[in-house]
Amino acid sequence: MIKITGVSHHIGKQQILHDINLLLPPSQVIALIGPNGAGKSTLFSVMARLQSLQSGQVSFAVDNEERDIVQCDARTLATTVAMLSQDNQVQGRLRVHELLMFGRYPYHQGRPTASDQKQVAEIIERFELEPLAERFLSALSGGQRQRVLIAMIVCQDTPYLLLDEPLNNLDMYHSGRLMRELRELSHSQQKTVVIVLHDINQAAQFADTVVTMKDGQVQAIGCPVDVITQQTMKDLYNVDVTVLNHQGRPVIVDAA
Ligand SMILES: Nc1ncnc2c1ncn2[C@@H]1O[C@H](COP(=O)(O)OP(=O)(O)OP(=O)(O)O)[C@@H](O)[C@H]1O
Q: Domain ABC transporter: where (predicted)?
């Protein structure tokens, strides 16, 4: 469970987040959707303590304990929540497997063990990165880089993952693979995956819960079929859509 209580955030004089209150259920894929500039990335960066919390509270429940992000030490936080941001600047002459081992840093603190090696090898296999493992990051395509960065976040093996637009640059095969992997991680390893998506149909197909945000405020939370409606899409994006139903989940089609 992620508990967000009364979180507001300003940048300069501009108020970006307005009194966000959310209880996000555990062991689910939770899609966070909303128009450009709604405040999704800002909320993520506050939750992951990349920007300091200005007001309110954020806590992550782990083993019946509530870890408050302000009180957590850095190592505890790094073993609680991992975040993929939109503007990842990882560069240089690092090989893919070295970057993945970096994801294990909160555990090995610079001295990887056999268990860290095993975990990295498993993630390489799981994310079909074997052909890339020895390559330098600088020699990867945009989509390959994105897949490697996501794998690094998964190597961090935290109970909570915040992924900001992870499908950027991914082709249809890799988008579907990733969403299925995330669903598997949440359902079989009890991880809570919160994911910012602009592709509403991916949210509709794979999320257990959908949260909508606009103008720095949360508008709705619920299961896809309740939240992804013609009216919600109009309110959020000012787009007219037709909503179809496929196996109990909504599918939207631009009706313009
Ligand atoms: N460093 C900054 N300085 C000033 N304003 C900022 C800064 N970062 C973000 N903002 C503003 O905060 C608001 C929310 O931005 P944020 O990146 O959180 O939105 P978002 O929902 O993630 O959008 P997108 O879907 O386009 O990624 C926007 O109006 C943006 O212009």
A: 2-240
User: Residues with Cβ < 8 Å from 227, sequence gap 6 or more?
Assistant: 210, 212, 220, 221
Task: Determine the distance separating the centroid of ligand 1 and the alpha carbon of 41, expressed in angstroms.
Answer: 7
Q: pLDDT tens, 124-179? A: 999 999 999 999 998 999 999 999 999 999 999 999 999 999 999 999 999 999 99
Distance from the alpha carbon of residue 26 to the mean position of ligand 1, in angstroms: 27
Segment 70-74 shows an average pLDDT of 94
Kindly provide the ipTM of the predicted complex, given to two decimals: 0.97
Q: Are residues 32 and 42 in the same domain?
A: yes
Q: Whole-prediction pTM value?
A: 0.95
Residue 209 placed within a domain: yes
**First vs last C-alpha separation in the chain:** 39
State which residues form the domain around 137: 94-157
Ligand 1 atom closest to residue 86's alpha carbon, by position in its atom list:
27
Residues 70 and 118 in one domain: no
**How many Cβ atoms are within 10 Å of 219's Cβ, its own excluded?**
16
For ligand 1, atom 1: residue with the closest CA: 11
Q: Among 157, 179, 203, identify where a domain stops.
A: 157
Backbone angles phi, psi at 58, to 5 degrees: -135, 130
DSSP string, 180-220: HHHHHHHHHS--EEEEE-S-HHHHHHH-SEEEEEETTEEEE
